[in-house]
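Fill-in record for Cytochrome P450.
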Amino acid sequence: MIATTRMVVASNIGYSLEILLYTLLAAVLYFVCKRFYVHQLRDAARLPGPASTPFIGNLLDISKMMTKNGGLLYRVHEEWKRLYGKTYGFFVGPRLFVIFEKLEDVQEILVKQFSNFTDRQPMDFIHDSLKKALVNQRGNRWRHQRSRISPAFTTRKLRSMTTPVSTKTAILAESLESYADVDEEFDILRAYQCLTLDVIAQVAFDLPSSCQSDPNDIFLAHASRFFQEMPNPESCPPMAISRKNYEESLLLFPELAPFCEFFHRKTSDGGRSEAWLIHRLRAAINKRIEHPEPERIDLISLLLPQNTFNIDDETVDTVVANCFAFLLAGYETTSTSLSFATWLLAKNQDTQDRLYEELNGVDLQSESAYDTIMRLPYLNGVFKESLRLFPPITFFVNRTCVAPTTVGGIELEKGTVVCVPVWNIHRDETIWPEPNAFRPERFDAPHHPMAWLPFGGGPRNCVGARFAEMEFKMTIARVFAEYRLKLASDSKELNILNPSVMLAPERVCVTVERRR
């Protein structure tokens, strides 16, 4: 009897192992066939582009070209444009990307045919805290969430945020006094990073902070650690074969992405800092729900429904995710944009003097400061020209085709990712004469609506673009109304970092002298 039972158990185990083996074999065959099928799509569409292999696509090409060009991703697309023109296809692992650079095609994708391109590129490898944020939503969920968030950035709401932003920029301007007294060189990129964190701490996290004055500030410590240790192949080897998000690295096997995200979040200091930030943010939101402050104007109050009675967990999670996304977008991109603009103005003293002439006599602390600053024409030109030359995001204006369609004579299947190479458009001499020159006055004349895309375009553009513009202009106005900035010797040539979609200066060292 016992022997018979053992035989039955052994038979069942053997049968189960056989089923598991066949299942694994079927999964492997599925992924193999899928990759080979996807690689037929570019040929079917008659798209030019670099030769690729079914599993790794053009990852090796991209890696070699970036190594050759100082780790700059935008150089890859400059070279491919030279070889294949303004429309071509390439592969990242199993996924087909189609580049569209002609402005009429870009307008088709972002505006005219928006219903066929409502979704962004899938981001499987995304921080768990961002999965419910607007940037990662699709279809009707995106439309619903966008309609809830957009009212937070109306002119009236932005005007109400002027006071806290003005207070923080005043702290920055005061801190520059110490450098003016001793004629000391310093990296203003770091100062701008502390400023943007200080602003976010107040307007998004409801957290009193001293990021600009206290190097040991707890919010600054956790935020800095989170950004320094954001997942990358060097810090987590499995990511080298799994990352799908261009923000971090290129993908090969997106199926492993959730495992790698979990691994990083649980084992790294950056993951623990992320948990601290999320815990602090959730506590602030729960406090606001329990004790509403109708007169308070910050991102939490703007995103929470007016009636917080019986608010559900889904709504709280969405507010948490979008406030956290605001931290990511507002810290890195705004501080780098301010740094690039400062470098350009310090390098071009005549332009800096012209900006000062416009700012001289403007009351930056009055109740009408927002309206005054946002209407200054030359400051507006500096803002737009700085972001034209150095868009903080070079390769994130992308959309996923949600229905078969045709753009520029190219037939696109559902699921194809289309991309707009912002750097190439912003430096195209047929669109912008003398494209490498810093000429704020060029924005006195109208231009094609798709020729300037630092915040994307169409209905799915950056929802916080107007806040970023307000913070940029208030900061530049405050700094350059009070100081003349000059480049330090080691910053006369700019060392640009662009290992992924983010563009940043390595540092911007300057000296300051008082204007007043």
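KEY FINDING: Residues 231-251 have pLDDT under 50 and may be disordered.
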